[in-house]
Specification:
alpha+beta; Enolase-like, domain 1; 4-stranded antiparallel beta sheet; 13 helices; globular; binds flavin-adenine dinucleotide; binds iron/sulfur cluster; oxidoreductase activity; CO_DH_flav_C_dom_sf; oxidoreductase; FAD-bd_PCMH_sub2
């Protein structure tokens, strides 16, 4: 076991001062991902800055219909909050579909966004992996990749982002707020995760030493009729092999507003903007939903053992949008 320092912080300025003073410092949220990776030698921080006592543990319902969610809110608190369930039900469902009750009691919003991929080569330090050890190669491309990416990947890395919560946040245009020693900043979730390209080890647009302070969700009336559907290899306590966050508003048989994001298909939550574009102003029926899925998935580049995800995602789009359209018509 490598030695590392541990410091509990109680205010944001103290946290960013510590994070800025040591390039090897990392925030400790619930520790449900970071500590596992430290045990396996994948993460080797020199200092853990325990953020759980920071005053970032509130969910504020904004008067305009949006929400502000503090970075240390636990996954359990997020899923149980009445305004989350009322305004963004897909977000509550997404969080509840992840991990277990005990883990959700510990895991934080900031940590969930920054959890690392579950690619088996990444967590096995005896194997090469461009994300863990830049330039060492990507054995997943020619090896075990049945749950790897079909969209937006590169020959340098085909890993998927494991967060369920992030998929729903992506559908609803979340913005990530952070703080560094230079002051506050924010970045839309759509730009938060960097393209894979040749640098899969560079995962987010957060500046060095940044503390995530919270997430803002803008008002989205369509989100009140939203759903998260997750497909996994066993009924609970498993990561997605494909998932969807969807919201739909139909007026007089025509799609007035729609949100779609996919999970477990890319290195980031995948906002399905091509599908959304193809649906707006058109009929709300199964043919249109299938055509929208095809428009999005035409960019898919499956590997030899994960082509099933294209069919899976197409079926998910049609099934979930059909359910939402039928409920909207009642
Ligand atoms: C068995 C198991 C099953 C799981 N299943 C699922 C699942 O189905 N779906 C799913 O989405 N997740 C799942 N998870 C993952 C779980 O949701 C994450 O481990 C958890 O959300 C991470 O939150 P944390 O607070 O514990 O993060 P930590 O482990 O404390 O930290 C994770 C990363 O975030 C950084 N970090 C934490 N907080 C901040 C902050 N405020 N600012 C900057 N950086 C920060 C840390 O430095 C670290 O790099 C599972 C985990 C386990 C162990
Ligand atoms: S897919 Fe990415 S994380 Fe997995 S082995 Fe390849 S480079 Fe590493």
């Amino acid at each position: 076991m490598r030695e590392f320092g541990y410091q509990r912080v109680f205010d944001v300025s103290g946290a960013v001062a510590l994070l800025g003073s040591d390039p090897g410092a990392r925030c400790l949220g619930g520790g449900t991902n970071l500590v596992d990776l430290m045990k396996g030698g994948v993460e080797r921080p020199s200092l853990l800055v325990d953020v759980r006592e920071l005053p970032l543990d509130r969910i504020e319902a904004r008067g305009d219909g949006g929400l502000r969610i503090g970075a240390t809110v636990t996954n359990s608190e997020l899923a149980a909050h009445p305004e989350v369930r009322r305004r963004y039900p897909a977000l509550a469902q997404a969080v509840l579909s992840g991990a277990s009750g005990q883990l959700r009691n510990m895991a934080t919003v900031g940590g969930n966004l920054l959890q690392r991929t579950r690619c088996g080569y990444f967590t096995d330090t005896s194997k090469p992996c461009n994300k863990r050890d830049p330039g060492s190669g990507c054995p997943a491309v020619g090896g075990e990749h049945h749950n790897h990416a079909i969209l937006g990947a590169s020959a340098h890395c085909v890993a998927v982002h494991p967060s369920d919560m992030g998929v729903a946040l992506s559908a609803f245009d979340a913005v990530v707020a952070y703080e560094t020693a230079d002051g506050p900043g924010e970045v839309p979730l759509a730009e938060f995760y960097l393209p894979v390209g040749e640098t899969p080890h560079r995962e987010t647009a957060l500046p060095p030493g940044a503390l995530i302070t919270g997430i803002a969700l803008p008002p989205a009336p369509v989100a009140a009729r939203s759903r998260y559907r997750k497909v996994r290899e066993r009924a609970s306590y498993a990561f997605a092999i494909g998932s969807i966050a969807a919201a739909l508003e139909v007026r007089d048989g025509v799609v007035h507003d729609v949100r779609l994001a996919f999970g477990a298909v890319a290195s980031r939550p995948w906002r399905a903007r091509e599908a959304e574009r193809s649906l707006i102003g058109g009929p709300a029926n199964a043919d249109a939903f299938a055509a929208a899925a095809d428009a999005e998935l035409s960019a898919a580049e499956p590997l030899p053992h994960n082509g099933y995800k294209v069919t899976l995602m197409r079926n998910l789009v049609v099934a979930v949008l059909t359910e939402l359209a039928e409920e909207d018509a009642r």
